[in-house]
Amino acid sequence: MENFRQLQFCNGCNVCVLPWELAGHSCVRQRVLNGRNNHTLGHMGCSFQGVTVVEEFITEEVEGCWVREMDRDDRLWILSQSGRRKQEFGPKVNFKKEEVKIDPSGTIFPSWSQEFLQLCSSSSSLLSDFEAVELGLLEYEPLRGSCIAPHIDDSW
């Protein structure tokens, strides 16, 4: 993993650039002022299509309600080896054995998540026919040493 370089994503023009190329830049503002974006891709930049970032997707009030619902039953949180806490709903995955176990009674999502899924499908034509099969909540707390380490997702 040490051979990987960190890039940052500009949501305004779907480009990944070196962090210092993005610093202090407002792509949307520049487009309004210049009629174009001002990124130079440099030797490490690249076009990054297929990712959609929806800014201000929910209000702070809704976020607070959902977080309170997530935290209502502390027994649902599982502490992992990496120091993070997680709640998982849906099929159980064993990455080492490359196995997936599906509950025969079906996936049961928490009640608050129905509003979230409805909002997802109504907010974007890309998600209009999306059907969730799993839901994972991950809490990274620096005081516990948890973080998202650079990695490549499993692809089996």
From TrEMBL:
The protein's name in its UniProt record: Alpha-ketoglutarate-dependent dioxygenase AlkB-like domain-containing protein
Q: Which domain of life is it from?
A: Eukaryota
A single Gene Ontology MF term assigned here is: oxidoreductase activity
Q: Which BP terms from GO are recorded?
A: demethylation
Protein's organism: Guillardia theta (strain CCMP2712)
